[in-house]
Amino acid sequence: MIKIAPSILSADFARLGEEIRMVEAAGADYIHVDVMDGHFVPNLTMGPPVVASIRKVATKPLDVHLMISPVDPYIEAFAQAGSDIITVHAEATHHLDRTLNLIKEYGKKAGVSINPATPVSAIENVMHLVDMVLVMSVNPGFGGQSFIPHSLNKVRQVREMINRQDRPIELQVDGGVKPDNIAKIAEAGANVFVAGSAIFSQPDYRAVMDSMHKNVRDSQKNPD
Ligand SMILES: O=C(CO)[C@H](O)[C@H](O)COP(=O)(O)O
What we know:
Blueprint: E1 3-6, H1 16-25, E2 31-36, H2 48-57, E3 62-67, H3 72-80, E4 85-89, H4 96-105, E5 109-114, E6 132-136, H5 151-163, E7 170-174, H6 182-188, E8 192-195, H7 197-200, H8 205-221
Parallel strand pairs: 1-8, 2-3, 3-4, 4-5, 5-6, 6-7, 7-8
The structure holds ribulose-5-phosphate (5RP).
Ribulose-5-phosphate binds at residues 7, 9-10, 32, 34, 65, 138, 140-145, 174-177, 194-198.
């Protein structure tokens, strides 16, 4: 079973509530919220007040991806705004263990993300603290970029690290995920797929998500 997390970065912000209801009705498992600060990444998006507004509309878990540095001073605000999963970047904090513990102190699921240039070894000593690992398959900052092929090796490496743990940890991939590459990413070991432009650029959100599920199912039936 795979999960799909539409990234609202590519939604029509003037109709955000309606867009969230539409992707949920079309089969979204999580609502992926990209928070960017114009410092850690070269773009600005939204903060806790927007997450709090989304919380009133969304029925699915809010999967909040913080691309901000510093990050610790903002964990409380994003937790209180109604985030369910808070993911931070290994590159964005000097004390990753402390940051992940802070998320857990607020009763939230903790995710850790690594950029394309960061080796998986950067997170091996915090695996016992995380509920999700997010492998970025583009350099974060913008939707609509192309999937970086060497990310597949990192997904395989993280899957091996997860398999060595004694509890389930989700493995999410974000950036350039499309119906035509999702099966390969799933084969590498990912189970949660963030997709922004692939979904929101199409008129029929359900058709895109259905084709993602179908392509993964077909490749599992007929592995090459
Ligand atoms: O975190 C992100 C960018 O930093 C976005 O979630 C990601 O890029 C999704 O967009 P797309 O599916 O269009 O690549």
